[in-house]
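TA notes, week 10

Several of you asked for a full example with nothing omitted. So below is the full record: structure tokens for the whole chain, then the designed sequence directly under it. When grading your own attempts, check the secondary structure regions first.
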């Protein structure tokens, strides 16, 4: 058995030696270093972009508000012009029906002396 044991030991040692070589400790692989901007610069850049976005949104909102105010002002001016036209028409109609020799007509003549014209006086009187 000694011969068999020796042969087994030799085979075992031959078998273990190549495994030991392949199992030899390997150097840990380092993770590749990815060059990047310093953290502070990246954050500052992002903050600047966010600030710029907010500033742009604020500017757009302000412009929209101005446009709305202008549109509202135009609508108010149009409404006022329509009211003025309606008031002028009503005053013209009233003046056309007014008898200048009636008590109301005589009173209106004295009332209208303060105004540039009778139409303006009639508009003020009727309003």
């Amino acid at each position: 058995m000694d011969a068999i044991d020796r042969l087994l030991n030799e085979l075992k040692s031959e078998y273990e030696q190549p495994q030991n070589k392949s199992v030899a400790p390997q150097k840990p692989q380092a993770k590749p270093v990815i060059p990047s901007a310093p953290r502070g610069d990246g954050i500052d850049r992002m903050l600047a972009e966010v600030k710029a976005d907010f500033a742009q949104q604020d500017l757009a909102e302000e412009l929209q508000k101005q446009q709305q105010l202008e549109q509202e002002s135009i609508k108010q001016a149009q409404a006022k012009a329509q009211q003025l036209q309606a008031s002028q028409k009503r005053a013209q109609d009233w003046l056309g029906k007014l008898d200048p020799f009636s008590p109301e007509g005589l009173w209106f003549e004295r009332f209208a002396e303060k105004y540039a014209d009778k139409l303006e006086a009639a508009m003020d009187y009727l309003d």
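The mean pLDDT is 84. Use that as a sanity check on your answer.
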